[in-house]
Amino acid sequence: MYQQPMMLKPLFKERIWGGTNLRDMYGYAIPSPQTGECWAISGHESGTNEIANGPLAGSTIREAWDNHRELFADEEGEEFPLLTKILDANKDLSVQVHPGDTYAREKEDKTYGKTECWYVIDADEDAEVVLGHHAETKEELNSYIENGQWNDLLRRVKVKSGDFFYVPSGTIHAIGAGVRILETQQNSDITYRVYDYDRIGQDGEKRELHLEQSVEVTTVPHKDPDLERKTNIHKGMKQELLVSESYFSVEHWDIHGMTYPVHNPSYLLFSVLEGDVNVWIEGEAHPVEKGTHFIIPATVEKFTLEGTGTLIVSRSNKQ
């Protein structure tokens, strides 16, 4: 029986809007000064993390999901359901929107659409994100887009460290320059660009837009989700529920000292944003540090955390 955390090797994606903060903040060996994304916990076909320890060392999350489903509570589905990223927006990301599951299956032949959420790790002063729009009808949305009325259309929100945003499929959105986030999302990479500031890609051409699909999948009018961040304080741990919805639950844990034993509900995904923590399982300590990402599999019934650290913890709600 697998009785230890599955430590993961991060993957990196170069983006025209990327920078060097993934190296500066976490000590990662990034491939270039335009590194935009750390794929921290992924079983996606475009990038799946290698397991660094234990009986499955050298294999990937994708292989573990296919061949050892007991580690994931025998959850059904062809694909590992979630994807955790850290994004470094050195420049503005494109304004985009993602489809829901039905559209993704019917139009893209993919298993999942893309609902996501953002925990703001760090943000420059006056940094902002695009979250939603001001159109009241599809016709008005089309008109704003066709006439390039981006300032009238886009809803901009100032952000700071510790903010949290839930971004369901159909939401027009963009992460602004100077924002570093941890993103928890469905295991999907379907993106429809609405606007890209007329930027030129590496091929010397403007990057492709997907205006027809964008209008089709955008929720009109925009509605802010009703979120209530709930906090519980236990021995050695402040536990804050950020969101719980049909695809995932995401929590923010502050560890100070030794916690009570935590009973594992299924399998849990962890990202260490700050500090050094020991994960105790059956009397054995497994140290994790800032920048570490790991999974506690379903075969671990309970564990204890010890140390000082800040973690984002997520789990699949897919049945």
From TrEMBL:
InterPro entries reported in the protein's UniProt record: Carb_Metab_Reg_Kinase/Isom, Man6P_Isoase-1, Man6P_isomerase_Firm_short, MPI_cupin_dom, PMI_typeI_cat, RmlC-like_jellyroll, RmlC_Cupin_sf
Reactions mediated catalytically: D-mannose 6-phosphate = D-fructose 6-phosphate
GO molecular function, one term: zinc ion binding
Active-site residue list: 193
Cofactor note: Binds 1 zinc ion per subunit.
Biological processes per GO annotation: carbohydrate metabolic process
Positions with a binding annotation for Zn(2+): 98, 116, 173
Named cofactor requirement(s): Zn(2+)
UniProt keyword Ribosomal protein present: no
SUPFAM superfamilies for the chain: RmlC-like cupins (SSF51182)
Protein family according to the UniProt entry: Belongs to the mannose-6-phosphate isomerase type 1 family.
Protein name: Mannose-6-phosphate isomerase
